[in-house]
Amino acid sequence: MFGFGTSQAVKRQGPRGSFDLPLLVALVGLASIGVVMVASSSIAVADSQHIGAFYYLKKHVFYLGMGLVLAGMAMRTELKLFEKHAFLLLLAAFILLLAVFVPHLGMRINGARRWLNLIALSFQPVEAVKLILVVYMASYLVRHRESIETRFLGLIKPLIVAGGIVGLLLLQPDFGSAMLVIAVTIAMVWLGGARPVFLFLMGLPLMPALVIAATSESYRMKRLTSFMDPWKDPFNDGFQLTQSLMAIGRGEWTGVGLGSSVLKLSYLPEAHTDFILAVIGEELGLAGILLVVGLFALAVGRGLYLGLKGVEVGQRFAGYVAFGLSLMLGLQAMVSIGVNLGALPTKGLTLPLISSGGSSVLLTCAMAGVLLRATFEINRALDARHMATRMPALAVPDANAAVAPREREAVAA
Q: Could you tell me where the beta strands, DSSP code E, fall in 81-190?
């Protein structure tokens, strides 16, 4: 466990917070694997583009370094500041999502308007929106706890907020992130105490809307049909998935060795981003995939566990933030892993902390920093409760010690 030290506004003899060590180890482990695998998977891609063999590695390390700075700042910021400005953050999220449609500011890449042109770099607003959504939902669950638990109308506002974000994401289009927003919103409301029947009624109108969204674009239909049988058209619609499956199958149990992947040599598309797990499977085998899955399971499990503890000790906002960020991290990882293994249709979601990226790496690190801050405040509350339970036991000997001298004086007299 790691504490803040003397810079925090707590009494030296009072309760002291600490970051959760298993969570920190899991996050650092994932980021470390990411650096190694980005280096291995991106060299051939960068070399074919004549931009320098280590271009993507340098870019990844640069954004990871900036992300670590953001994470450090988040770890030293009281969560009550996020809670206080939750509505303003939500307003900023909508402005960012709308900004991608502004000419010259929004960038169209591969037919999608998901990026902002910030001159020196590009930025994908949805990465910040994921963090902001969790903060706003946690704030709403704290403020409207009774309404969430007892009335269906208490779910209307979260439904409107999530629906607005999903609508803007589908216009970009970004179907994968839209599904992630829906899943995390429903999960957080459920963890906030909403009745299952309310959740069913909340999700009922979303089902036909998602079906229409999934089938309205030809490229989405191709992804669905190729997912069902990628080998039917292995050189066209099923190309990405078949190459991914061949890479993972080639790795067998222990892999062909780090740096020895063949499929990454211009065969496997997006080898350093969306399909980096396939490269891990080929070079490190099933053992490498299980290591990645295990680290994600540890990170998500610790986040959910401490979120539950936070709610129990009255740190509801910190608890809900831990719930939401753990779910966001875990669900995105699950989708990315499922896509690489052929268990889910192809989505444009990266593997958090591992895939090469810019704004995704930056904001995932910030998300990790806020999650660690939540564990700090939860552990501080747990320490305060532990101290409170020990105080009576400590007070009794002191009282006896104070009475004993008076009794001895009386006997001597």
A: 106-109, 112-117, 122-123
